[in-house]
Design brief:
Elements: H1 2-23, H2 25-45, H3 53-57, E1 70-71, E2 76-79, H4 81-92, E3 97-101, H5 103-125, H6 132-135, H7 143-151, H8 155-172, E4 188-195, E5 198-205, H9 215-223, H10 230-243, E6 248-250, H11 252-265, E7 270-273, E8 278-280, H12 288-299, H13 306-327, H14 335-362, H15 376-387, H16 389-402, H17 411-427, H18 435-459, H19 463-495, H20 500-506, H21 512-520, H22 522-542, H23 546-555, H24 582-603, H25 607-615, H26 623-632, H27 654-669, H28 677-693, H29 704-721
Parallel strand pairs: 3-4
Antiparallel strand pairs: 1-8, 2-7, 3-6, 4-5
Helix pairs in contact: 2-13, 2-14, 5-8, 8-10, 9-10, 13-16, 15-16, 15-17, 15-19, 16-17, 17-18, 18-19, 21-22, 22-23, 22-27, 22-29, 23-25, 23-27, 24-25, 24-26, 25-27, 27-28, 28-29
Length: about 725
C-alpha cells in the first residue's frame, strides 16, 4: 500500500510539473536559452579556464605570508612581462640615436661667410673705417671687437684661415643634442647624410662629438699648429664663433625605426610551469610575480578541463534556481506579470552578462577590478522602476554572484557591484518624475565614489589610481542614470508597462477620456474620484501599489460615458430603467464593463489597468434588477442569478480587489442617512463580507487582517466626506 501511495504521489508531482511547464512554455524557453547563452559566453570568454580562479586567489596578498599552498593544476607557459620589459629596455638602450646631417646649413654658412669676406676686404682696402657695413654679419661681436678687426689684424691672413677652419668644422658636423636625451661617455651616435643620392651612415663616439658648448676647444685645436700672430689667432677665433652653427640634428623617425626593428627581434621571456608545481608556498611571503603566475594559470589555459566546465555549469544552475526562488513569490498569482517578469529577467541577465564579458575582455586598466566598469545599477534601477525595489534588489544580488564566473572578479568587485546596485534600486524607489532619475544618478555617483575610496584604502591605491577609479565609477553612475532615462520610455511602449511614470501621466486630469467623462458623465466622474481616494489610501495601508489602484479607479467606469443616463449617479429626475424590462436594463448595466475594456485597449492602457476595469464587478449579482425581475415574474422562463450577474472574472490582484470594494462602498454610502462612525464601521464591514461570502475576493491574495486594515482606511476617508453629517457619540461626564 505504501509503495502504491508513493507511486501515486510521484505521478501527481510529474503531472503538476508538466502542467506548470505547459502553461509557461515561453518562460521556460527563455530561461533555457539565456542559460545556454550565458554558459557558452562565459566558457569561451575566459578560454574555458578555471572560472573560479579569482576566488582561489582570495586571501593572497603581496608581501604577506601565504596561508596555504597554490598548486598548478596543469602545464602552461607563462610570459614574464616584467622580465621581458627589462630585457627590451636593456637591448633598446644599446641602439644608437640617429642624427641627420643638414647640407643646406653648410652651404648657407659658407655663402654668408663669403659675402662677409668681400665686404670686409672692401672696407679695409678703402681705408674707410666704417663698421656699419659689417654689423649685419657680425651679430655676436661688439663695436670694440669690430674696430679690432678693422685696424689691428691682417685680413689676408685672417679670412683664408677662418674660412678653412669653418669649412672643416661644418663638414665634420656641429651636433645639436635635444634636451631630455642623455649619453654616457661610451655611447655613440649614428649620423647620416646624402652622398651621391645614397644614405651614408657614420658612427661617432659621444666623446668625439662637436657641439656649440665645446666649439672653443675645437677651434683652438685647429689653430694650435698654425704659425700666426696671437692677434690674428684671436681674430680668427672671433669670426668662427660668429659664423659657426649646428648642422647635425636628431632624427626621431630613423631612431624609432631602428628601435622598432630591434624590438621585433626580441623574444619574450617565458617560464614553463609543470602541473603540480607550487606557485605559492605556504608560510612564505607572496611576491607580485607569484600572483601574476597564479592569475595566468586561470586566465590563459591551454585547454579547458571537463571538471571546470562541469563546475561552471552547476554554478550557473544554482544561480538560476536561486533566481526562481527569489522572484517566484513576488509574482505568484500574477500571470501576466510573471510572464513578462521572467522574460525580462532572462533578457536582462543575458544582456548584462554580455556587457560584463565585453568589459572583461577589453578592459585596459588591468590594475582595477573590471566590476567597477559594469553598470550594474542600470539594470537594478530598470527593474526597480518597472517591478519594484524588491525585484531590483534581487536582480542585483543575482547578477553580482554571476560575476564570479569571470576569473578577474574579486571580493571587492563583488561588493562594489552589490552595494552600487542596491543603492541604485533604493534611489529610484520613490521616483515620480523622469527628472528624479537624474537626481538618483547624482546620489549614486556619491555612493560609488565612497565605495571606490573604500576599495582604494583596502588595496593601497596611490592618489592617481584612486582618481582614475573614482572617475570611472562616477561616469558609471551618470551613464546608468542617462541610459535608464532613455530606455524606460522604450520599454514602457514595447511592454506596455504600468511604471510609476506611466501611471502619473495617466492620472493627469487633462487626459481626453477624463475630460470627456466630466462633461458627459459628471456623476460617474465624481464617483470615480471618490473611489480613487478610497482605493489609494487602502492600497497604501496594506503595501499594495497605491498609484495603480488610484489610476485603475479613475478608469474603471469609462464604459459608462456613452450611456451615462442609464446609471443612477448621472440621473437628474427621470430614470430610463422605469420604461425597460429588468432583463434589458441589466444588459445595459453589464455592458459598461465590456465597453470599458474595449475603450481601454483602444487607448493602449496597460493590461493591469484593463484588468481592474474588467474585474471591478467580478461575477457579482446586480441585486436591484434581480429582485425587480423576481417581483414582476416576467415571462415563463425561470429567473436565475447568473442571468443577472456580471460576466467578469473576480479580481486577480490586490489592487483590483481594493477597487472592487471601494466601488461598492462608495456607491452604497450615498444612501446612508445620519451616518455615525459605528454605522460606517458596520456598513463597510458588511459590504466587504458580502464580497467575501460570494467568493469575489478568493483570488486576489488579500488576507482577513488586510481586510480589517482596508475597512479602517475606508472609515477614515468616508468620515472626512460625511464630516458635517456624522453624529459622534457624546462623552458622558463623571457621575456625582
Amino acid at each position: 500500500m505504501k509503495e502504491k501511495k508513493r507511486f501515486n504521489n510521484s505521478r501527481g508531482l510529474l503531472r503538476k510539473a508538466e502542467e506548470v511547464f505547459s502553461q509557461n512554455t515561453s518562460v521556460v524557453a527563455a530561461a533555457v536559452l539565456s542559460f545556454l547563452l550565458i554558459f557558452f559566453t562565459a566558457f569561451y570568454s575566459v578560454h574555458g579556464g578555471n572560472f573560479f580562479n579569482g576566488l582561489r586567489l582570495s586571501g593572497f596578498t603581496v608581501g604577506k605570508k601565504a596561508a596555504r599552498d597554490y598548486i598548478a593544476g596543469r602545464n602552461f607557459i607563462f610570459i614574464d612581462k616584467q622580465a621581458t620589459d627589462a630585457l627590451i629596455k636593456k637591448k633598446l638602450s644599446t641602439v644608437p640615436k640617429v642624427f641627420k646631417f643638414d647640407d643646406e646649413k653648410v652651404l648657407e654658412m659658407n655663402k654668408k661667410f663669403e659675402d662677409f669676406s668681400g665686404i670686409y676686404l672692401s672696407v679695409v682696402e678703402k681705408k674707410k673705417r666704417d663698421p656699419k657695413a659689417l654689423k649685419a654679419y657680425l651679430t655676436t661681436i661688439n663695436t670694440v671687437e669690430i674696430d679690432f678687426l678693422l685696424t689691428k689684424v691682417d685680413p689676408y691672413i685672417v679670412i683664408p684661415a677662418a674660412s678653412n677652419i669653418l669649412d672643416k668644422l661644418l663638414l665634420n658636423g656641429i651636433v645639436k643634442i635635444p634636451s631630455g636625451i642623455h649619453f654616457s661617455p661610451d655611447d655613440s651616435i649614428k649620423v647620416w647624410k646624402w652622398n651621391n643620392g645614397r644614405k651614408e651612415y657614420n658612427d661617432i663616439k659621444v666623446s668625439g662629438i662637436v657641439t656649440l658648448s665645446n666649439i672653443d676647444k675645437n677651434i683652438e685645436d685647429h689653430l694650435m699648429y698654425k704659425n700666426f700672430p696671437e692677434k690674428e689667432k684671436y681674430a680668427i677665433h672671433l669670426l668662427i664663433r660668429n659664423f659657426i652653427t649646428e648642422d647635425v640634428f636628431y632624427d626621431q623617425i630613423q631612431t624609432s625605426y631602428l628601435l622598432d626593428k630591434l624590438r621585433k627581434t626580441i623574444k619574450p621571456v617565458t617560464v614553463k610551469v609543470i602541473k603540480g608545481d607550487k606557485i605559492i608556498t605556504k608560510g612564505f611571503p607572496v611576491t607580485e610575480r607569484q600572483i601574476q603566475l597564479a592569475k595566468a594559470l586561470g586566465m590563459y589555459p591551454d585547454s579547458a578541463g571537463i571538471d571546470q566546465a562541469a563546475g561552471s555549469l552547476l554554478y550557473l544552475l544554482v544561480l538560476y534556481i536561486l533566481g526562481i526562488i527569489l522572484f517566484y513569490p513576488l509574482f505568484h498569482g500574477k500571470k501576466r506579470q510573471k510572464q513578462y517578469t521572467y522574460l525580462f529577467l532572462a533578457f536582462i541577465l543575458v544582456y548584462a552578462f554580455y556587457v560584463a564579458a565585453a568589459i572583461h575582455i577589453t578592459s585596459v586598466f588591468t590594475d582595477l577590478d573590471f566590476a567597477l566598469f559594469i553598470p550594474v545599477a542600470l539594470f537594478s534601477m530598470l527593474f526597480s522602476v518597472i517591478l519594484g525595489i524588491q525585484a531590483g534588489s534581487f536582480l542585483t544580488l543575482l547578477f553580482s554572484l554571476f560575476l564570479f564566473i569571470f576569473p578577474n572578479t574579486t571580493i571587492y568587485g563583488f561588493m562594489f557591484s552589490l552595494l552600487s546596485g542596491f543603492a541604485g534600486s533604493y534611489f529610484v524607489r520613490k521616483a515620480e518624475k523622469r527628472l528624479d532619475l537624474i537626481r538618483a544618478g547624482l546620489y549614486l555617483a556619491f555612493v560609488n565614489m565612497i565605495l571606490a575610496l573604500i576599495i582604494a584604502l583596502y588595496l593601497g591605491y596611490n592618489v592617481n589610481m584612486f582618481l582614475i577609479a573614482g572617475g570611472i565609477v562616477v561616469l558609471n553612475a551618470f551613464l546608468c542614470s542617462i541610459i535608464n532615462l532613455s530606455l524606460l520610455p522604450v520599454l514602457e511602449h514595447i511592454m506596455n508597462l504600468p511604471t510609476i511614470f506611466r501611471l502619473v501621466e495617466l492620472s493627469d486630469m487633462s487626459m481626453p477620456i477624463l475630460k470627456r467623462m466630466i462633461t458627459l458623465a459628471p456623476g460617474t466622474y465624481s464617483h470615480s474620484m471618490s473611489v480613487a481616494n478610497l482605493a489609494e489610501s487602502a492600497a497604501r495601508e496594506i503595501g499594495a501599489n497605491a498609484l495603480l489602484a488610484r489610476v485603475g479607479a479613475y478608469y474603471h467606469d469609462i464604459g459608462k460615458i456613452d450611456q451615462s443616463e442609464y446609471f443612477i449617479e448621472n440621473q437628474k429626475g427621470d430614470n430610463k430603467h422605469d420604461d425597460l424590462k429588468p432583463s434589458l436594463s441589466v444588459a445595459v448595466i453589464k455592458s459598461h464593463v465590456k465597453i470599458g475594456i474595449e475603450r481601454g485597449k483602444e487607448m493602449g492602457l496597460p493590461p493591469e489597468i484593463i484588468d481592474i476595469i474588467a474585474q471591478h464587478h467580478g461575477s457579482g449579482v446586480i441585486n436591484y434588477f434581480y429582485i425587480e425581475a423576481i417581483k414582476k415574474e416576467l415571462g415563463n422562463n425561470r429567473i436565475t442569478k447568473e442571468d443577472y450577474s456580471y460576466n467578469g472574472t473576480p479580481p486577480q490582484s490586490k489592487e483590483a480587489g481594493i477597487v472592487m470594494m471601494a466601488d461598492s462602498v462608495e456607491a452604497a454610502s450615498r444612501v446612508l442617512k445620519k451616518p455615525t462612525i459605528a454605522k460606517l464601521d458596520k456598513f463597510i464591514w458588511n459590504t466587504i463580507l458580502e464580497k467575501v461570502e460570494t467568493g469575489q475576493l478568493n483570488n486576489c491574495n488579500i488576507t482577513f487582517r488586510e481586510l480589517v486594515i482596508i475597512k479602517n482606511s475606508f472609515i477614515q476617508i468616508l468620515a472626512g466626506y460625511f464630516h458635517s453629517r456624522i453624529e459622534y457619540p457624546k462623552r458622558e461626564g463623571p457621575k456625582t
